[in-house]
Amino acid sequence: MSRPGFVLEVDDRTPPLVVHEGLGFRLESFPLGTRVVYPPESLPSVPDVDEAIREALLHPVDSDPLPERLFAGMKLTIAFDDLSLPLPSMKSPDIRGRIIEHVLTLAAEAGVDDVEIIAANALHRRMTAAELKHIVGERVFRSFFPQGKLYNFDAEDRDNLAHLGTTDQGEDIEISKRAAESDLLVYVNVNLVAMDGGHKSVGIGLASYRSLRHHHNPQTMVHSRSFMDHKKSAMHHSAWRMGRIIKDTVKVFQIETTLDNNVFSKPYDFLMKREWEWSVRDQASMLAMKRGLSVAPQKLRHKLFHDLRAPYGLTGISAGEVEGVHEQTLERVHRQQLVEVQGQSDVLVLGVPYLGPYNVNSSMNPILATCMGLGYYFNSYRHQPVVRKGGAVILYHPLNEGFNQLHHPSYVDFYEEVLAETTDPAVISAKYEKQFAEDEWYRHLYRTSHAYHGVHPFYMWYWAAHAMDHVDEVIWVGADRKVASRLGFRAATTLQDALEMASGTVGTSPSITYLHNPPHLLADVR
Amino acid sequence: MTGFLKGTVDDVRTVSRGWRWGRRSMVPRSAEEYVLPARSTVFPSDWSRKRPAIAAREVAQKGGLEPLFRSQVRTQVEGLDVLAKIDGPVIFAANHASHLDTPLILLSLPDEWRRRTAVAAAADYFFDTWWRAVGSSLLFNTFPIDRRGGAMATTPGEVLADGWSLVIFPEGTRSQDGWVGKFRMGAAFLAHEYGVPVVPVAHRGTFAAMPRGAGWPHPGRRQLTIRFGEPLRPAEGESVREFAPRIKDAVAQLLDEDSSTWWESRRRAASGATPDPSGPQVAQWRRVWAQTDSPQVTDEPSGRRLAAWRR
To answer: If DSSP codes are grouped into helix, strand and coil, which group holds residue A339?
Structure first.
């Protein structure tokens, strides 16, 4: 029996609460009356995953069963979400690999020879062979990778992109040529949060910069309220417009999966429990971990956290027509993550953890930390933001991880050159985006190395545009002051200091809400 | 290194305070409705009624509990003569106001009765961890009963059938303000079912000496009084529902007797004027206030206490 999420009101009986901050966490004593939003506990997972996959493929939503859509001599492409999902990476076997195996089994039975498997990484970095293998599993990897039939999507390979037209609002639709010309495109997704999936899968995952720039920009992001609610997200509206045109030209069989909230395996599972329910063992684990982290060098802490694999359970799988499938998916995501919150507050507190979608096996640089806090966590709402217009956001992260030169080369220049000039997303977009997006060196690194595309740091900054537009004050607790200042924010040592600093904006006794994630939650603010 | 040690001390201190080491953990008020029902795992206590445990308990009670108890409170015990009239097992049904009630009753009993008396204790409170279960079973011979009416590994019936007398607090929990609460049917049911007499027990002063929330008796050796009443048996054809109120009435009369005299309490009982043990319906503070006074013990009209033969 899983308990629903709820809003705790901190009182004299409340123990200190866990707040994530990068490669570590702290125990914070919040002021009395602080609201703390706890996510629902894990929903029951599907007892027989293989049976559930078979069932979904044979009885899809608004579509013929998959076996009927497969035939000898066809061109079949299977695309799947890259390593940015789920977070943290899933313990083997990854659900995508299991689904792909089922699809391939059916394809083999139907005598399909021409099969290619593409990681839908858009402008994300190319995954390494080991990362691909982790997702698709050993059988699929061995059968396709050496032949070059399992590969990362290359959004800069002009010869292998297809322009499918433009929407009624003039948005270009340019996606993988192989996917566009296939007789069937099977997309395998992991719908970790509400923004994933739907028309965002093919329309964004397999798209080029030419296509992405129409919705990945500050204007759209400011009007995506939030991008976790696709019906109120300008970004999703654009993706949906594109998706409907893609649907007319490409036959897509969408497979969406939803996971439970089981993000930490033992002995770190105390991080998912409600603190006042910690057993003696949980308290001991927490103390041991906290003390261990305090003396461990950064490299070791990084390894410890990034080696964690989540024991996710599958809460459901739907397959078939994109929109019908996505509706079912969202219902399950909401059931797992939605928490009703009454009214906005003056201050929103967020703990930015060690991991976001773009630093899997990499480092959480200051831009990614901003994106994680002000982008993903701030936008984890429906109806209205958790914090009121003109309020303050207090984030926890040391901002001291530096940049990974292999994965994030363009971020370094974005930080050193662009942010030194301005932090305004609109100005940044107008003045610098094109230059970074078309830079030959970044293009080369994206295509041949494991670098994120040159324009990617811009998108991260746009992700936070709505939050920056909405609140008046952003304060980082425990952060490097210089870095925070470069980002256009302020740093404080403790929560008390941060509240003191914010008092000019929100007064001396503000209402405070802390979103207690991970695990993932979506605040339904009434 | 110094920094690490200091950090460790700080962290341990934070955790020990936040999670109330050595005390019961508390749930934030707003989270109470989301707390899962208590675990059904209850640690067994059968071993505690076996010979080695009985011997260990004798040493613990006589060598540890009794001297400590007497060093903290003064007691006056009346009515033990009723036990001479009956053979065990019996059910001692007492009012419940404090953790002192159990040692008070046990240590007031004659040794041969005490050794064969077990105490019904809330499974969710005394048997939720192994150390609490072992501690309370060893020291007080407790066995678990479920306040919510679930099934237990050991039933009170089995303990009675083995020849053990039982101490049962029919209120099911300690009083919030020292006054007697609603009596549940358990004791009456057991007496009815197993044909054993119920000895009503009334005590006063335990709330004043150590109320709910206190971890140790108040200093100054507060006075406690305890009085055992005439055994009650269900009459022929009397149902549990009819028998249960008689137990409460008997306890009420004993309380009345304890605060006045036997004769006066008998006369009030005869005229149906026994004071309601649940206390006057006045402001809560006045109810608590009235119970914070320890009972006055005067044996002689002069007010001088007779020290000899008192326990």
So the answer is: strand
